[in-house]
Amino acid sequence: MQLSQSVKLKQKQSLVMTPQLQQAIKLLQLSNLELSQHLQEQVDENPFLELGNNENSAQTPSDAPADSGKATALEAVDHTDLTEMKASAALREDPTEHSDFENRFDQSIVDAPRSGNSNAPFEGDFDAISNVSSKEGFYPGLFRQLNLAIDDPKQRLIAGHFVNALEPSGWIGMLVQDVADASGCNLDEAEEVLAILQTFEPTGLFARNLEDCLRLQLTEMGAMTDALSTLLENLDLLGRGEVKRLARLIKGTTDDVMDMLAIIRTLNPKPGEFLGIDHLEMPSPDVIVKRRSDGWAVELNRSTLPAIVINEDYANLVATKKMDEQAQNYSATALNNARWLKRAVEQRNSTTLKISAEIIRQQTDFLEKGLDYLKPLSLRDVAQAVGMHESTVSRVTTGLLIATPRGGMPLKSFFSVNIASRAPSGDASAAAVRNMVKRLIMQETPGKPLSDEAICKMIADEGIDLARRTVAKYREMMNIPSSSQRRMQARLANIR
């Protein structure tokens, strides 16, 4: 075989993602706080950029007076007018306006990891310990951990209320029943979500009280015994130093009590202090939903979203100065980058608002009536409604928080798979159907539990056709035993 070298010319066409487009795609995935940090970095590097007051710099909506203090044209939309939103004049100069430019490139390039302190996509890898030990990353890390552990949209919403109830100690500062009432669910559903949250690191987080906190840690260590359980139930006696009385309760000696006390002293009674929760605030929402007389309004949270401003005076001054070629090239490049960044931020704000408004338009029943009315909603549904690609909707909604009259929650909590229904009300969400399965089981006669086949027939009477294996899958997802196991549990309960 003979080897040879040669030089050949070849023409080919390929798509190349410019730095500006990479930046625009990155902006789509940033939360308001992350965007603020990114803009501050850009301002520090680019002399033509300044951060301005977003309330003053934005345009005034046509249906609100300039001094009304309401949201700006890029920040609000009413559900009665969700057709078309226009950005500023600078945005209209951008040839990429209304295009899905991020979808013209290789997905392996586009789906680059986000910054370390960001609300990373829920489906990504997540190191719970490293995130909860960082004060800056605690709440974003907690929400990522939450979404990795909980798939059900309704349970995510309930979990959000528990996160809101966290105290500096790391315990929840509300009764579980109060959280259930605030979430619009029943006590059993709230208890089920709390049990999941109590598996998060560090152990003891989301405890109801001191006893619960210590019990969670002892159970995790594998050190829980009947004697320790009795001791935890009588912490008031321990606090008063009634060691002999405790010894009688555990049917042991005072030395046994002191040994158990030594174990308890190795535990952390307030895991929240380790995390610095007392120095943290809940992350500000990126989007705010408000009820108005004429419907629901969606706004970007301007308090965490500064406006980017071009220093035109400085640009004019530089243009009149005599400079060498290198300085001229630097100034021209910096000014072009500044104008592109301004357009990209406006595009990001417009896209975020448009998608958020469409999600709320389709989920108004949930806002008005509660969790049971969460409709099936997919990325494709929203993408088709707003005229964008599914990947754009996914990037915008991943990691964003929305504040509603029913509490704060991840924006992606509004998405749920669709299950066909023959009912007049239309298709149902998977979350609602799972709730139906759970309700039927809760209402069954203890000694005569419903089989999965019987549950299928009862749900079919409601107009929803499910396979028996689907009911079994939903039941297992909710950690509900089979009918034979439930029958056995009922018999054991009667024996006791």
Summary?
The chain is α+β, with helices and mostly antiparallel strands. It is 50% helix and 7% strand. The protein contains 25 helices and nine strands.
How would you describe this protein?
This protein has 496 residues and is an alpha+beta fold. Among the domains are: 210-267; 418-495, Homeodomain-like (Arc Repressor Mutant, subunit A), CATH 1.10.10.60. The protein is built from 25 helices and nine strands. It has a five-stranded mixed sheet. A hairpin with a 2-residue loop joins strand 6 and strand 7. The radius of gyration is 28 Å and the shape is extended. It starts with 18 loop residues before the first helix and ends with a helix. 33% of the residues are buried. The model is unreliable at 56-136 (pLDDT under 50).
Strand order of the largest sheet: 2-4-3-6-7
- Termini gap: 87 Å
Q: What characteristic shape results from the CA principal axes?
A: extended
Quote the beta fraction.
Answer: 5-15%
Helix content: 40-55%
Task: Tell me what the CATH architecture of the domain at 418-495 is.
Answer: Orthogonal Bundle
Q: Structural class from helices and strands?
A: alpha+beta
Under CATH, the homologous superfamily of the domain at 418-495 reads: Homeodomain-like
CATH class of the domain at 418-495: Mainly Alpha
Radius of gyration: 28 Å
Number of helices: 25
Q: Please state the oligomeric state of the protein chains shown.
A: single chain
| Main beta-sheet annotation | 5 strands, mixed
Low-confidence stretches: 56-136
Compute the number of strand runs. 9
